[in-house]
Amino acid sequence: MLEPMARKTGSHAEQTGPRVRTAALQLFSKFGYAAVSMRQIAKEVGVQAGALYTYTPDKQALLFDLMRAHMLDLLDAYGRVARKNASPHQRLEDFVRFHIHYHIDRADEVFISYMELRNLTQDHFEAIEAFRRRYEAALEDILRAGQESGVFRVSDVRVTSMAIIAMLTGVNTWFRDEGRLSREALADIYWDMVARMISGVEVPA
User: Fold this and answer.
1) What is the residue extent of each domain of the chain?
2) How far apart are CA 198 and CA 99, in angstroms?
3) CB 172 within 8 A of CB 110
4) Cβ atoms 27, 19 nearer than 8 A
5) Closest CA to 117 of 176, 32, 38
6) Does 93 have pLDDT greater than 80?
7) What DSSP letter does each residue of 58-111 carry, written as one string?
């Protein structure tokens, strides 16, 4: 069974452990996992390199812990806003708006979750993929419900769900809060595009 990285008890460790993860997140996102050493992470935190092993067995475990935490937080957050008894139309809109707003605030986590999958060991990769499939399955369920009720016309639920997620996640590569669009305006535009993608869905005026 895979476990998150070990954490030392005590008030000092409660402060240092999150700092280690924050430093690793920022460095992995900026330079890439392969280019970052444990010594660099330790320097960023302000501790000796050997002290890091109090908080993580190795760099691989640290990467997995960051990805695992991101996916668990994502699933928990979506679970709290998902309205399973709403119409497929409303559930799809909720998903689009949730994905946009949630991921914009987590650019580093999103970058690592997609770009560093190749650096996970096989067992870690399979664990993260299982979490990702749970999130993707939530969108697939919405599309399938709309398809079965005749509200959506979708030729392939799986392909459509992957296309939607890729389009929504791509926002992180270019959106900036200081730009001409607000987050809500951005969500409106992307919902309009997704609605038009799913033939038969009309965007309310």
Assistant:
1) 58-197
2) 17
3) yes
4) no
5) 32
6) yes
7) SHHHHHHHHHHHHHHHHHHHHHHH--TTS-HHHHHHHHHHHHHHHHHTTHHHHH
Q: Which of 14-23, 87-96, 129-138, 179-188 has the lowest mean pLDDT?
A: 14-23
pLDDT at 167 over 80: yes
In 3-state terms the chain splits into helix, strand, coil percentages (rounded to 5) of 75, 0, 25
Determine the Cα–Cα distance for residues 115 and 169; give it in Å rounded to an integer. Answer: 13
> Tokens 């890729």, residue?
166
CB 93 within 8 A of CB 157: no
User: Fold for domain 58-197?
Assistant: Tetracycline Repressor; domain 2 (1.10.357)
Please give the mean pLDDT across all residues of the chain.
90
Q: Count CB atoms within 10 A of the CB of residue 93.
A: 20
What DSSP state is assigned to residue 199? B
What sign for the dihedral angle of Cα 73, 78, 84, 88? Answer: negative
Higher pLDDT, 126 or 205: 126
In the chain, pLDDT over 70 holds for what percent of residues? 90
- Which of 174-193 are b and which e, b meaning 16 or more Cβ less than 10 Å from the residue's Cβ? eeeeeeeeeeeebbbebbee
**Mean pLDDT, range 107-128, rounded to an integer:** 95
In Å, what is the CA distance from 135 to each residue of 45, 112, 119?
A: 33, 17, 21
